[in-house]
Description:
The chain is an alpha/beta fold. It has nine helices and ten strands. S-adenosylmethionine is lined by residues 11-12, 36, 87-90, 93-95, 118-119, 170-171, 197-201, 226-228.
Amino acid sequence: MSSVFLAGAGPGNPDLLTVKALRLLQTASVILHDSLVSEEILALANPAAQLIDVGKRCGRHSATQEQICALLVQEAQTSEGIVLRLKGGDPMIFGRATEEMQALDAAGIAYEIVPGITAALAASASLKHSLTQRLVSRAVHFVAGHAADGSIPGHDFAALAQKGGTLAVYMGAQNFGGFAAHLVEAGLDPATPALAIENVSRPDERTISGTAGSLPSALRAAGDGPVLILVGDALAARQPALLLAEACA
Ligand SMILES: C[S@@+](CC[C@H](N)C(=O)[O-])C[C@H]1O[C@@H](n2cnc3c(N)ncnc32)[C@H](O)[C@@H]1O
């Protein structure tokens, strides 16, 4: 039997892999990877490894989650050495890890989880905006921008619209017009700063800046890379330290 790992590959830049994820990449005999795992990271894989692309892509034929779970179990049962299930970002954040752990549990296969840097945290670092900020943002919500059927999820928008927090919206670029409208209806000021960051940490990273009101139309300029949206007062242009000190006095 093999050793099985569900690991995060981070947002795409190989420098943001954990040491453990890199070691697993270099020694695994089978790697089942998502479409969000970058080519630069896959290039670091053990040259003898069998690479299996199980990425789900919008509008293109791809493996179902059930097929991915079945394949993972099959590889775990039949392969020698390390079987690495490699996911973009962190495997436990919008990564369907639960289904894969359930499938492994049901088959009696032991596994280990290796965390990765999730897109929101990589975006925060790239943008040099802390998601929490004293007196401004005391909470961070990681939220899905679309439901399984592609519609806007039934979040408690009144709770999300409250001042004093930052929203990190995953998978939100397609629906952000409707998503932002729900937030504004629920009381969010449309002038609240909002940023979209595409291809975080990769050479083609780019940022689209706006407000909750203006970002939906500005997002038309986004390409087809993954996009993370951040909304909240913590994303406002930074005040000079002197002004901030006065505000805190
Ligand atoms: C299915 S979720 C997977 C999230 C991933 N497990 C993580 O922790 O970052 C896919 C969404 O994550 C975000 N995302 C992942 N990687 C990204 C990147 N490099 N740049 C921008 N957004 C990214 C986007 O919102 C994308 O639609």
